[in-house]
Amino acid sequence: MIAVTGATGQLGRLVVTGLLEAGVPAGEVVAVVRDPQKASDLADRGVQVRQADYSDPAALQAALRDADRVLLISGSEVGRRVAQHGNVLRAAQSAGVELLVYTSAPRADDTSLPLAPEHLATERLLGDSGIPAVVLRNNWYLENYDQAIGQAAATGEVIGSAGNGRIAAASRADFAAGAVAVLTVDQPQPGVLELGGDSAFTLAELASVVAEQSGRKVTYRDLSAEEHARALAAHGVPEDVAGFVAAIDRSIGQGALDTGSSALSTLIGRPTTTLANHVRDVLAR
Ligand SMILES: NC(=O)c1ccc[n+]([C@@H]2O[C@H](COP(=O)([O-])OP(=O)(O)OC[C@H]3O[C@@H](n4cnc5c(N)ncnc54)[C@H](OP(=O)(O)O)[C@@H]3O)[C@@H](O)[C@H]2O)c1
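Above are the sequence and the NAP SMILES. Below is the predicted complex in structure-token form.
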């Protein structure tokens, strides 16, 4: 039995459907969700949908009772995730799972990325649990830039404060395929995988690609972190979120997402989605 948590999230859905496409029988896939209504399409396909919130240890124990392999997709409630992930790990431990796969952050143990501490703490809990584990340190989703791509095509400008920092982003579908590969391999190799796109890019290169694909002039305007946060706030982004986005760009400028490696394309047996193809698809919508 393969259980996927966060199965109604964007990554989780891609993993569940990827498992079915890889030939795993639907009855051997458990979708752990907090709202089963959102997973009715998965239930219709024969997937076992089980309700459990990351904050509910008893529900998690029941949901994972017969799981052999578990994908723990990191939650989205920042600040509460270490305790929540700990609940999932304890439930997996009680079930005696043979493999736990966790979606972590790039270089979680050596980075200034603001989101990394919760991931590192989870990785440590996982190490302490003794469960055989594969940590997928997923780089940025290309989809994180969809709004910026649309705005750049409309305004002729990408703004940010990441300097020349390179971003080894790949699509959610690429990362989902990586998770499927690890969950379905005969003999999983416990360890940490730094996963990202084959070709890292700067925000100036993102602007160039939008220019090529849209046929209009697009430039990158690099701001200080303070200017960046102010510019976002002026466009209606809540102040705390604006500061957070600027802090992330600052880390990117320090190389936090420059994790160049072909580990993901090797794992999935094909190149990762290119920035050019992704931008083309976003602009075609
Ligand atoms: N690499 C990146 O660029 C990047 C970017 C953003 C996030 N992330 C991380 O990667 C994860 C997966 O990405 P995504 O795009 O799939 O995010 P997403 O669409 O927001 O999905 C998050 C999933 O976590 C579930 N969840 C959140 N809190 C929960 C709780 N208390 N109990 C049970 N389930 C809970 C959500 O349930 P519902 O379906 O009920 O909402 C959802 O299924 C995110 O949660 C975040 O940790 C990575």
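Residues 81-95 form the longest helix (15 residues).
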